Amino acid sequence: MDARVKPAHDESRITAVGITFYLYDSSGSGPSLKFGGMDAMNEASAPAATVDRPAVAGKIGVLLVNLGTPEAADAASVRRYLKEFLSDPRVIEDQGPLWQLVLNGVILPIRPRKKARDYARIWNYERNESPLKTITRSQAVKLARALEPLGKHLVIEWAMRYGNPSIASKLGELVAQGCERILVIPLYPQYCAATTATACDEVFRALARMRHQPSVRIAPPYYDDPVYVEALGASAGAELSQLPFKPDVILASFHGVPKAYVDNGDPYYAQCVETTRLLRERLNLDESKLMMTFQSRFGRGKWLEPATNRTVRKLAKDGVKNLAVITPGFSADCLETLEEIAIESARLFKKYGGENFAALPCLNDSAPGMLVIWQMALRELKGWV
């Protein structure tokens, strides 16, 4: 049996930092947050500003940023996307002649066809876009609704580091709308130079081309944020309770990076370890029941281990029949979760003797997921609103 679990977030209760949050989403119009009976979106647990008290000067922008996506599920679009992605020295640090030969002579002529087929398997054909774009847009729309009590001077947008809408274009739009202060929220719980830092690089490149620059803040990673950990735990618990089987093992699968990046000072691995430790604590599971792994290995170099695909295969060979996978490092479902985990890992598990497999959804734009983004925005906007 394969189970791609549908989110069970219509009603949730999350307790974090001494406050109990009740979340409802029965209308599909976004989460309504309540704590202690107060409607947090309509009675504004707002820091200092209200609709009647505008910001000190000008408008304030909030820009949600995720990784990126091709414009279409075809080889040409994927090739353009991969070229931009793999030409980033934050992603592939050695951009020398050998890499250029491999990239332009091997990867770009061959890999886009296969990846286009993968995208086609999970594509949102109704909107003709990838699920990552659909979900990130929805996160921005729901965040805008949640922040409405702070005043109409707040403008919420979303962008992708690679592909469209670009960070530069959205920063330009925010400035054109009169935003003198902009909060950028990279939607990566764990910091990594290949994700968070390259998003910051692009923000600063866009600012460098502006004569009249806005003030900018970058939200920090939130790998150990109590609200994030509680949202993960509550979400995972709700999804697991809906499964028609009880997992023998749960994998917490994070995106992999070359080990050399961590050896050179990237904090990513340590932050993944801490997120996993806190999640084990929240779910009351030990290391044998909630295992940390790393997916999406690319190339022949040494990457972070253990690898998700090898772990899935080994567990099946060792007699594990029921497996669930959660992906705490992804704020929204994308190719890596919907295809690599939900389809390919399920196929691999069954091939080597496994029976029941479930890929749990990311927090996405669910009520717990939006609570994480909402409270992060409120915290980072302090002093501006």
Number of helices: 11
Give, in order, the helices and strands. Answer: EEEEEEHHHEHEHEHEHHEHEHEH
Any idea of the CATH topology of the largest domain? Rossmann fold
CATH class of the largest domain: Alpha Beta
Number of domains: 3
Main structural class: alpha/beta
* Radius of gyration, CA atoms, in whole angstroms: 21 Å
| Annotation, overall tally of beta strands | 13
For the biggest β-sheet, the strand order reads 1-13-12-10-11
Q: Give the DSSP E fraction (strand runs of 2 or more residues).
A: 15-25%
Helical content band:
40-55%
Give the integer mean of the pLDDT values. 89
Instruction: Write the CATH architecture name of the largest domain.
Output: 3-Layer(aba) Sandwich
Q: Cα distance, first to last residue?
A: 50 Å
Main beta-sheet annotation = 5 strands, parallel
What report would you give on this structure?
This protein is an alpha/beta fold and about 375 residues long. It folds into three domains: about 10-65 and about 135-225, Rossmann fold (3-Layer(aba) Sandwich); about 70-120, no CATH class; about 225-360, 3-Layer(aba) Sandwich (Rossmann fold). Helix content is about 40%, strand content about 20%. The chain contains eleven helices and 13 strands. The strands form three sheets. It has a five-stranded parallel beta sheet with strand order 1-13-12-10-11, with helices on both faces. Strands 2-3-4-5 form a four-stranded antiparallel beta sheet. Helix 5 links the parallel strand 8 and strand 9. The longest helix has 26 residues, at about 95-120. It is globular and about 60 Å long.
